[in-house]
Structure formats: C-alpha cells, structure tokens
Specification:
- The complex is a heterodimer of chains A (354) and B (276).
- Chain A contains 13 helices and twelve strands.
- With 354 residues, chain A is an alpha+beta fold.
- Chain A folds into two domains: 180 residues, no CATH class; 128 residues, no CATH class.
- In chain A, a hairpin with a 2-residue loop joins strand 4 and strand 5.
- Chain B is an alpha/beta fold.
- Chain B has two domains: 92 residues, Translation factors (Elongation Factor Tu (Ef-tu), domain 3); 122 residues, Nucleotide-binding domain of ferredoxin-NADP reductase (FNR) module (Rossmann fold, 3-Layer(aba) Sandwich), CATH 3.40.50.
- Chain B is built from eight helices and 15 strands.
- Chain B has a seven-stranded mixed sheet, sandwiched between helices. A six-stranded antiparallel sheet of chain B has the order 4-3-6-1-2-5.
- In chain B, a hairpin with a 3-residue loop joins strand 3 and strand 4.
- The longest helix of chain B is centred in the middle third of the chain and has 13 residues.
- Chain B is globular, with a radius of gyration of 18 Å.
- The chains are: A alpha+beta (354), B alpha/beta (276).
C-alpha cells in the first residue's frame, strides 16, 4: 500500500477532478439546496460531495443500472431472399470501469448479496460480473449512524472495510485516505499530500473509536425458524403490514434488493431487450397471465420480502443474511414500517404483536 | 457454469405450426445453428424460453422427447401478450429459444417401474415428452397407463397421435367432461376416471399435470389408491422472467421453480413454502 494522504476539505473537489481523469468517479451529491435527497452521480467539476450524511439512494446503479440493455435486436430482410426476414442479435459493449467515492460500508456490503446470486451460478450474469469487477469503492468510515441504522446486527459495522479499495477517514479539516486493495492503492498518491503524523494518528484514533461502536441491537438469529413458525399466522403478518401502501420504496433504496424485470422496447424494425429494477412489493411482480397470483395481497408480498432477506437467503447461502442494515427501508418508508420490529416479533410466537 | 450471457437466446426458425384446439397451438422449432441443434441435449421435463423479439419471452416445456431431435416442440395456450403473438407465427418465422432450463423428470429412477400419467388439457404437454421418451425406450418401463382428459373432444391436444401412443405400448384412457356426438371414449372428470381405472400403486410412479382443481382431486384419488407422496410427481408453473434463478420472482421460499423445478415430487412440494 502506498501510505496515507490527507485531502483538505477545500481541496476535495480538485482531488476528485484529478481522480476522475484516471477513472470515472461517482460521488454522493445533494439534489437541491435543502440537501434532501442525496444520490450518487457521475462526478462533474463543481459538484459538492455530501460526505457527512448517508445518501438517500445508494450507489446500486453503478453496477446494477436501473435500466440496462441486455441485447439489441433487429429484423432485417434476408439478402438472398427478400421474402424472408432474419433476426440480428447484438450484445451490449463491455462496461467502463468506475470508482464510487464515499460509499458507506453498508453500500458496499449490499453487493455481497448480489455476488452470490449473479456470479456463483449455475448461471453467471456476465454483465453484472463485468461491472462488479471494474468498479472500485472508496469506503467512508461511517460516523453518522442514526436510529434506523443496524449494520452491526447483520455482520457489518461502521468501520467495516470489506469490499473496499480505498478507505476514507474524516479528520479535523479534511480526510485521510489510504489504500485497501492494490488497485485502490494506486490512486492514493493522486489524491493529496502525504498525511502528517498527527493527521495519520487522528485517523487511526477515529477508526479505532468507530470500530468499537455497535450500531443497532437487532438479533436476527431466530428469523429462519420464526419465519417457518409464523408463516401461516396471517394475523401477525396483517398487523405488521396493515399500513403498507405497496409503494415499493423499500426495495428501491435497498442495497441488497436485486429483483428485475425483462421487457422489450421496439421502434420500427429494431429494439432492445432490457432489464429494469422490479419490486416484489408490486402485485404484478408475480401475477401470471391467467390472472392467478401466488402472492395476491401485500400480506404475502411483505412476508416474502422479510422471508427472503432473513430466512430464505440464509437457507440457500449458508447463513448469509440478505440485509446490510443500512436502515434505508425504515427511513424512507412513508408509513414507518420497521423491518427490525417485524424480525424481532417473528421470534416471539406467543405474543400478539404491533 | 454458463459463462456466456444467460439472457441471450439462440435464434431459431419455426418449422411447422399445428393448431391443437381453439386456444392451443404447437410449434416445431429448429435452431438456426445446425451445430447447436445437433448437439442440443436435454432431459424430458426441461423447459425453454421462447422469444418474440419486441414482445417478450415466456416459458414452455419442450414437449418433444430427446429421442426425437428433428425439431424442438412447444405447445402454447393463448393467454397473455407473448402467447397471443406466438399464435400468429407461421412456418419460416424467426424466434429466439433459451433452452434447456430447469430440472426435468427423474426418468432414470423410474426405470423398471409401472407408470401412470394423469393429464388435463394443456397439462398433457409436459407429460408428452416423458411419455414419448418412455415409448422410445419401452423395454425400460413396465405398464404405462395414460389418463388424459379435457372439457370436450375439441380440447384434447395431440389427438392425431393417440393411435401412435396406443400402438407404441401405452394404455391410453381418454375422457371428456360431457357427452359429445361421435365420442366413443370415456365421459367424466379425470379424478372420477382415475378412480374407475384404479391402477395399482405397487411399484408405480404417477406423473400429474393439469389445472389446479384437477390436481387437487387427482391427489385425493391417488392417496386412496395407496400412492405415497414420493410416488407422485408434478410440474409447477410460475411467472418467470430470467429463467436462470436470478430475477427473483418464481421463488417458493428459497426454492426457485425455474432452477430447482419445475418438476417436484409431492413429498418435495409439501416441504416448500406454500405459495403456489
């Protein structure tokens, strides 16, 4: 690794400009002056990165775009026989590399869930794999955990560096950045001057302090059994999900939600087959052409969502929970459904809930 | 591992379209790449995704057997957008095929046993592939009884093949819900005919596919005849998109119908999260 550098707060933009010349950088930026709605966007000169608050939406689309072309197709006349029509299929070009600057540990953790599904087979999603391998993460030491956060409850923590290539530690007057991976390390010198001993020590202190923090008090261990025990307990699920509007924002902002739809768009004789984010909270998600729906109401749909994260996924992938504890579903829910409460209550068979 | 783009279909040409009933047609399809067609391997019961580019994809069982590889056959009921469009196809038209997907029937384990097929309507399609496979390997199996029913004689698929099935060594019992002029076979619902036929459960596997209400009562009937849960096999249907266990929608708990199914024994089904 190439040591630690210090980026003064007022030099962050120019550091990112230098970095952006080497690799396209995504940064968390505010959508408006009131700073509501922080989103990851491709860096442009003049952008002000918001580094002191968790982003509203996450950098999911860097690797898993909201809409992505899977292939293009074109109907063409057969050259040797104009009475016949042939099809031409083309795969999209390979993705460019990218670096996400200021992702929080939970943002990176989310892709661990994706990795199991998209790259472990039996079928490998080559487009996902391509982008995943080409995307670097500069992880921010997270000092802004709030009441909705529970990353420490699901195997992560605010000082987690898993999956990171660079580590950003906010200190007095700026940021100390160090390399975590070889690829990440190669960009460190570019970002600033070597950190002074004091700055490096302050960063280490902060890292130690944050790594001792325990964010959240959820114990998800009994969820697999709880889901089985309570599966048919409709009163329980109804009480948990009664106020749900079915808006799907919990899935939209979720770093581990990967479900997608595949649709065709066509104009004249050519078109695209694309995938776009879908949500298990929508009725049409599972609705069959006959009209039959295996998950006809929000009760079944929410039960599946909780089950998938805390029960079905661990069953399939040796205990791994498909939740990174970022708390976005709780923070963004317009009717304040708290997935932690549902998981906790799952285990308490005898209690009437909510 | 399949390292290529798992969503990219093979281009294929429709060789023939057969009208089965007023809302079911059968497609015979050949992959455009002769090498790929020659090397195409699958297990009876595996499915394929048919693509109409510009409209979408849907999942259908390959209902021709692996022993007859002149073409791949799919039977399609007109229900939604894609199937609507499939029904407009003619010989020579270009489509996409992603196959084989899913698990298929455990035909090796059925060797040496008596077989009972119980099918209703379009539910005969997944049974046909296994039936023909067994008739092509007739010596490997004992008695093969097929109970196949539909609302009326006009709703039976593959009626032009029934004689071949019989001469190939299948005990074919056909039934329709109500009397029809000229109909010389059985009349009555499939579960009732099953009860009348009463095939012995001893050393026999039952493969059931049809509308949910038929399956429900056929299961009661099979229980009465002494069939155990692991002697009963069925195939499931779900709305699917990717077909390769990624997009998320066809799950029943941690089981994905597209990947772990669509073929399940009844004892396996009982263990699954009940979201049929």
């Amino acid at each position: 690794m190439s040591g630690k550098v210090f980026i003064p707060q007022d030099k962050l933009a120019s550091a990112l400009e230098r970095l952006n010349e080497k690799v396209p950088v995504w940064v968390p930026v505010s959508q408006g002056a009131d700073r509501w709605g922080i989103d990851f966007k491709p860096f442009r000169a003049g952008m002000v990165s918001v580094m002191d608050r968790q982003s509203t939406a996450l950098p999911k689309e860097v690797i898993f775009p909201q809409v992505q072309t899977l292939m293009t197709f074109e109907y063409v006349k057969a050259p040797e026989d104009p009475g016949r029509v042939q099809l031409k299929l083309e795969e999209p070009p390979e993705a460019a590399s990218a670096l996400v600057f200021g992702a929080r540990p939970c943002d990176v953790r989310g892709f661990f869930t994706f990795d199991r599904v998209f790259t472990e087979g039996p079928f490998v999603d080559n487009q996902y794999k391509d982008r995943r391998e080409k995307t670097l993460f500069a992880v921010l030491l997270c000092r802004e955990a709030d009441e909705a956060c529970f990353c420490s409850s699901v195997g992560s923590g605010p000082a987690d560096t898993a999956g990171g290539d660079l580590w950003i530690t906010p200190v007095e007057g700026g940021y100390v950045v160090e390399g975590l991976s070889e690829r990440g390390g190669s960009y460190v010198q570019l970002l600033g001057d070597p950190a002074t001993e004091e700055q490096a020590a302050a960063a280490s202190r902060s890292q130690e302090e944050v790594s001792r923090q325990k964010v959240g008090s959820l114990d998800p261990s009994g969820a697999v059994q709880g889901q089985k025990d309570r599966f048919e307990d409709k009163d329980f699920w109804r009480s948990m999900v009664n106020q749900c509007l079915g808006c799907g924002v919990c899935t939209y902002v979720c770093p581990t939600c990967y479900c997608f739809n595949i649709t065709d768009e066509m104009r004249h004789s050519r078109g695209e087959r694309m995938r776009s984010w879908d949500s298990c909270m929508f009725a049409v998600y599972t609705q069959e052409a006959s009209g039959h729906n295996p998950r006809p109401t929000k009760l079944e749909r929410y039960r599946n969502r909780v089950g998938h994260k805390f029960s079905y996924f661990p069953e399939k992938y040796d205990g791994m929970i498909a939740c990174c504890g970022c708390g976005r579903c709780i923070r963004s829910c317009p009717v304040s459904i708290d997935i932690r409460k549902v998981v906790e209550n799952l285990k308490e068979r005898s209690h009437a809930c909510a | 591992m399949h390292a290529h783009n798992p969503y990219l279909p093979e281009l294929a040409t429709v060789q023939e379209v057969i009208g089965e009933t007023h809302n079911i047609c059968t497609l015979r399809v050949v992959l455009n790449d002769p090498e790929k067609m020659k090397n195409f391997q699958f297990t009876p019961g595996q499915v394929g995704q048919l693509s109409i580019f510009g409209v979408g994809e849907s999942t259908f069982v390959i209902n021709s057997p692996p022993t007859r590889m002149d073409y791949l056959q799919f039977s399609v009921m007109r229900v939604g957008e894609v199937t609507q469009r499939i029904h407009l196809l003619n010989a020579g038209d270009q489509i996409g095929v992603r196959a084989p997907l899913g698990n298929g029937f455990p035909f090796e384990e059925m060797k040496g046993k008596d077989i009972l097929f119980v099918g209703g309507g379009i539910g005969m399609a997944p049974l046909r592939t296994l039936l023909l496979f067994m008739l092509d390997n007739r010596q490997d199996y004992g008695d093969i009884t097929v109970i196949y029913g539909a609302r009326s004689p006009h709703d039976l698929c593959y009626s032009y093949e029934f004689d071949q099935w019989r001469s190939g060594g299948a005990n074919l019992v056909l039934t329709v819900d109500t009397e029809h002029p000229g109909w010389k076979e059985r009349v009555g619902f499939v579960p009732t005919v099953l009860k009348e036929e009463a095939p012995s459960a001893h050393n026999r596997v039952a493969i059931v596919c049809g509308p949910p209400i038929m399956i429900k009562f056929v299961l009661f009937g099979l229980k009465e005849l002494g069939f155990e849960d692991d002697q009963i096999i069925s195939t499931l249907e779900k709305r699917m998109k990717c077909g390769v266990g990624i997009c998320g929608r066809c799950n029943m708990g941690s089981t994905y119908v597209c990947l772990d199914g669509p073929v399940f024994t009844y004892s396996e089904l009982r263990e699954l999260v009940p979201e049929l």
